[in-house]
Amino acid sequence: VQLQxxxxxxxxxxxxxxxxxxxxxxxxxxxxxxxxxQAPGKQxxxxxxxxxxxxxxxxxxxxxxxxxxxxxxxxxxxxxxxxLKPEDTAVYYCYAKTYANSEYWGQGTLVTVSS
Length: 115
Hints:
With 115 residues, this protein is mainly β. The chain is 0% helix and 54% strand. The protein has no helices and 11 strands. It has strands at residues 3-6, 9-11, 17-23, 30-38, 45-51, 56-58, 66-71, 76-81, 90-98, 103-105, 109-113. The strands form 2 sheets. Strands 2, 4, 5, 6, 9, 10 and 11 form a 7-stranded mixed sheet that branches. Strands 1-3-8-7 form a 4-stranded antiparallel sheet, with no helix packed on it. A hairpin with a 6-residue loop joins strand 4 (30-38) and strand 5 (45-51). It is globular, with a radius of gyration of 13 Å.
């Protein structure tokens, strides 16, 4: 597995959760890492991304509630999700893109926000 995600599960509305993703040593020169999500019946969409230099990009829906961070030395990316809402329920996918434009996807981790 080249991108291994962890975290997720069942959380109650208003709670926080953290997703983490580790890239395999076989992936070289990662430029951008990020998280996408796919809600039931919907297309996969960007949540947030971060470049190697630390430039972040957030989809409007999650600005202010979600925070992405990255450890370049460990090739890991994390997504801190705060004040979770039922509409945040989705499968979250870790993503990595190299300087050579190769793309990698994690296996997806389900986040369910429900009381």
